Amino acid sequence: MYLIPQPKNIEFGEPGSHFTLSYGSYVVLEPSCGEKLTAQAKLAVEALKEELGFAPALTRGTGRPGDVILSQSEEMAPQSYRLTVDEKNVRITGGEAGVWYGCQTLLQMAAQCGAVLPAVTIEDEPDIPNRGFYHDITRGRVPKLSFLKKMADKMAYYKMNQLQLYIEHTFLFRDFSEIWRDDTPLTAAEILELDRYCAERGIELVPSLSCFGHLYKVLSSQGYSHLCELEDSEKMPFSLRGRMHHHTINVTDPESLEFIKGKIAEFMPLFTSKQFNICADETFDLGKGKSREAAREKGVDRIYIDFVKALCEFLVENGRRPMFWGDVICGFPEMIKELPEETVCLNWGYAKYQREEETKWLADAGAVQYSCPGACGWNQFVYLIENSYENIKRMCTYAVKYHSIGLLNTDWGDFLHVNHPEFGIVGMIYGAAFSWNTQIPEFEQINRQISLLEFRDREEKFVGIIASAANQSAFGWETAIRFRELGVAEFAEDHKAYIAQQLDLLDNAEEKNRNLEEIKGAVYESIARMDSRTKGLVKPYLTAMDAIRLFNELGRVVASRAYGKNYGSLPDAWKLAEELENWLYHYKEIYRSVSRESELSRIQEIIIWYADYLRGKENLG
């Protein structure tokens, strides 16, 4: 039997000793359980019905033999629990959150054992108190509310307790219509509903709003472009690289601070959370335009920290705990002391073998920090699962070593969030498992566990299969974007250098495509082993693998035409164009099943541009 996260202490009873959860059983809330646990117990009963086909009744009072008994203990830590199964009862005792987590353990047991549960005693609590997931809903995809609720359900199942959504412009601000008018933003009513939904499941929905850098839609608008660090930002030609690289707010204009405060003031009341993430990362242009003189006089570090401090103090004045990304302040960590003492520094690092120096520097400077690894899906059709495992493993280890108070696992959407967002579940589970218990299983071991528990693959192979797919990419989405944007003069040399580094991968493209066909065959075979509730992901994975194959072939044509590479034989370009267009039809169907329209049109435009390129229109501009 697998349990994710792995409990700290687990002891099984005598072989053959078990408890049968019958249709006549009750889930009994003892008087110690409050209103929140009553609502959560109802959710647990509904989930048991999905696993067993019947639901035990829910009541309050004193349990009898045959019942599941829930008891809240003031003597136990808030997130700890004790679960015992014997021949008479199931009993879950813990802090308020701990009882809820014990219910998730019971659900995982029922998923594998049905109604006949083995005798066991589990004592458990997390290594890291705050265990979150961060999902980009700005740079390409705005998820449907139904998808975000499903995400919250998954998080609860794996004992996570915080969710953040990255927003630059994809919220329907009342006074800033120019920045969201051509998108499909979340509304205040939807955030209020999601906040309630998350709270019911023990998850804190923490507001996150880009407030410094990464303000493309805001600072390219006619109404607010005058607040941009660089002149004429609204005249810059659109590029996916450009919108991530520029558009930092001008900190020397007093209107900038008031503008950002106004956005925060409208946004924060929608959340019950008393925390707020102002982001403040990747301020690439700071000190290079309108603030150049101030930067020369005071230093870039000074004008950076003064703006962040002003926002943090504004939040504290309004009863919120500030959070911000730590990439910039790592260059001058001693300045962390100037921020309000309760400020949380979100220390991110996404390398496969991420070093620990930044975590140490911030800890030595006295920062209160979260460690923030990544699910490693950005710019990929299929997530880099091995990379995410190694990265998350290390960052969780550093979090414990340097006393981070939280783990925030990130899933970014660079270059239009081209991948299916449900693919991020594997990385999400890694973060949940390794932040709860930092005795971390081996890669193959945890993948077998996830295959069975999450994907209901009885042979425990599914995650291993999909993990091998991303390694077959020879001409990835980012390479395709950079080739498409070679005409953007500012980034042309950078794009050329990047593409040159990638071209050698195409030498093995045909072999990689043969591997993909074998991997796809294994995915098709897995259908017979999977639960009906998880088979819906098969088509998105197969479609993503077809994308890798098609882009590998596309890359060989590009390398031949544009860079003089000789492969002996090339695919029929017209046929490949038709395949791309047929692929796009299925991709859009899958996209729309979980996401709003958002920037799907940009992805479509890129695919059509390449189809035209394949048909011989090489001077497309």
Topology:
Elements (H helix, E strand, L loop, with lengths): L8 E4 L5 E3 L5 E4 L5 H18 L4 E4 L7 E5 L8 E5 L4 E5 L1 H18 L2 E3 L1 E5 L5 E7 L8 H13 L4 E5 L21 H13 L3 E3 L9 H4 L20 H6 L8 H14 L7 E3 L14 H7 L1 H18 L3 E5 L18 E5 L8 H8 L3 E5 L12 H17 L4 E6 L13 H12 L6 H11 L8 H6 L9 H8 L7 H11 L6 H18 L11 H26 L9 H22 L5 H15 L7
Helix pairs in contact: 1-2, 3-4, 8-9, 11-12, 17-18, 18-19, 19-20
Can I get a quick summary?
By secondary structure, the protein is an alpha/beta fold. The protein has helices spanning 35-52, 96-113, 145-157, 188-200, 216-219, 240-245, 254-267, 292-298, 300-317, 357-364, 385-401, 425-436, 443-453, 462-467, 477-484, 492-502, 509-526, 538-563, 573-594, 600-614, and strands at 9-12, 18-20, 26-29, 57-60, 68-72, 81-85, 90-94, 116-118, 120-124, 130-136, 162-166, 204-206, 275-277, 321-325, 344-348, 368-372, 406-411.
Account of the 3D structure:
This is beta-N-acetylhexosaminidase. This protein is α/β, with parallel strands linked by helices and 621 residues long. The chain has three domains: 9-124, Chitobiase, domain 2, CATH 3.30.379; 130-216 and 247-278 and 299-440, TIM Barrel, CATH 3.20.20.80; 466-614, no CATH class. 43% of the residues lie in helices and 12% in strands. It contains 20 helices and 17 strands. Helix 8 packs across helix 9, helix 11 (385-401) packs parallel to helix 12 and helix 17 packs antiparallel against helix 18. The longest helix is centred in the C-terminal third of the chain and has 26 residues, at 538-563. The termini are far apart.
